């Protein structure tokens, strides 16, 4: 059974989410502030977190950073903040998706399901490939990346983006295709997601992120992975 941690200081939203999630056979924990969220995440190990940014004790971005220090669990931000820089800030801190309030319950649940799917382990026979570059090695079966003898910690979304690219070495993967494969069919215009997550992959895997050797941008078209 999938366990969801809902973090929001608005009782009405928490109640609506708890009712709808439990009706769909999710286990649900709820927190009304950041400190409680971090404590519940450590104690109960949720499979996905739905997080509001406007919490009474700390900003939601601080909570994301605190979570990312200890877990790769998918984080779905639910916020009234509509500005593009707010979205980029949350994604850059490690969130996997961003839904603005007011929201439709069906859309939120669809995005939550997509986030959970991205975190699921690869089935047998789907990923028995090793991709090796001069700086790092990607083990698609084990869902691991090694750089200089050390495991590189990737979030589920970072991993999914990397996986799509390394499975097509040397080929241009279009922006819409990447968005559809990593986030889902309703994300055709969210190109800021790609910019943020490509920057994260470059920081973690490129020797010189400002001058990438492996993750190449084709302006206005998409991205390419080069060994």
Structure described in brief:
With 227 residues, the chain is of the alpha/beta class. The chain has helices at residues 11-23, 34-44, 60-68, 84-93, 105-119, 156-166, 175-182, 191-205, and strands at 3-7, 27-31, 48-51, 75-79, 97-100, 130-132, 137-139, 144-147, 150-151, 172-174, 215-218, 222-225.
Features:
12 strands, 2 domains, WalR-like, DNA-binding, 227 residues, phosphoprotein, two-component regulatory system, transcription, Arc Repressor Mutant, subunit A
Please characterize this protein's 3D structure.
This protein is of the alpha/beta class and 227 residues long. It has two domains: 3-119, Response regulator (Rossmann fold, 3-Layer(aba) Sandwich); 130-225, Arc Repressor Mutant, subunit A (Orthogonal Bundle), CATH 1.10.10.10. 41% of the residues lie in helices and 20% in strands. It contains eight helices and twelve strands. The strands form three sheets. Strands 2-1-3-4-5 form a five-stranded parallel beta sheet, sandwiched between helices. Helix 4 (84-93) packs parallel to helix 8 (191-205) and helix 6 (156-166) packs across helix 8 (191-205). The longest helix has 15 residues, at 105-119. Mean pLDDT is 90; it is low at 123-127. One of its GO terms (cellular component) is cytosol. InterPro entries: CheY-like_superfamily, OmpR/PhoB-type_DNA-bd, Sig_transdc_resp-reg_receiver, WalR-like, WH-like_DNA-bd_sf. One of its GO terms (molecular function) is identical protein binding.
Strand content: 15-25%
User: Which strand order does the major sheet show?
Assistant: 2-1-3-4-5
CATH class of the largest domain: Alpha Beta
Order of helices and strands: EHEHEHEHEHEEEEHEHHEE
- What distance separates the N and C termini? 39 Å
Mean of the pLDDT scores? 90
DSSP helix fraction: 40-55%
What general outline do the C-alpha atoms trace? globular
What's the β-strand tally?
Answer: 12
Q: Which class do the helix and strand fractions yield?
A: alpha/beta
CATH H-level name of the largest domain... which superfamily?
A: Response regulator
- Tally of helical segments: 8
Poorly predicted residue ranges = 123-127
CATH architecture of the largest domain: 3-Layer(aba) Sandwich
Can you summarize the main beta sheet? Answer: 5 strands, parallel
Number of domains: 2
- Rg from alpha-carbon coordinates: 18 Å
CATH topology of the largest domain: Rossmann fold
């Amino acid at each position: 059974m999938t366990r969801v941690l809902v973090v929001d200081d608005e009782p009405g939203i928490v109640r609506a989410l708890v009712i709808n999630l439990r009706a769909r056979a999710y286990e649900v924990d709820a927190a009304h502030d950041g400190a409680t969220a971090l404590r519940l995440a450590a104690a109960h190990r949720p499979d996905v977190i739905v997080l509001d940014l406007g919490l009474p004790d700390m900003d939601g971005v601080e909570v994301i950073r605190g979570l990312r220090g200890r877990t790769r669990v998918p984080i779905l931000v639910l916020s009234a903040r509509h500005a593009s820089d707010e979205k980029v800030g949350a994604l850059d801190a490690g969130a996997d998706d961003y839904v603005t309030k007011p929201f439709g319950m069906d859309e939120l649940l669809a995005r939550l399901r997509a986030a959970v799917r991205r975190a699921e382990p690869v089935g047998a026979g789907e990923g028995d490939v090793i991709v090796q570059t001069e700086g790092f090695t990607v083990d698609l079966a084990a869902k691991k990346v090694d750089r200089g003898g050390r495991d590189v910690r990737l979030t589920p979304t970072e991993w999914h983006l990397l996986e799509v690219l390394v499975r097509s070495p040397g080929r241009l993967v279009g922006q819409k295709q990447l968005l559809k494969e990593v986030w889902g069919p309703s994300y055709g215009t969210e190109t800021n997601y790609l910019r943020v997550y490509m920057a994260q992959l470059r920081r973690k895997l490129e020797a010189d992120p400002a001058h990438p050797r492996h993750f190449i941008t084709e302006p206005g078209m998409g991205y390419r992975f080069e060994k």
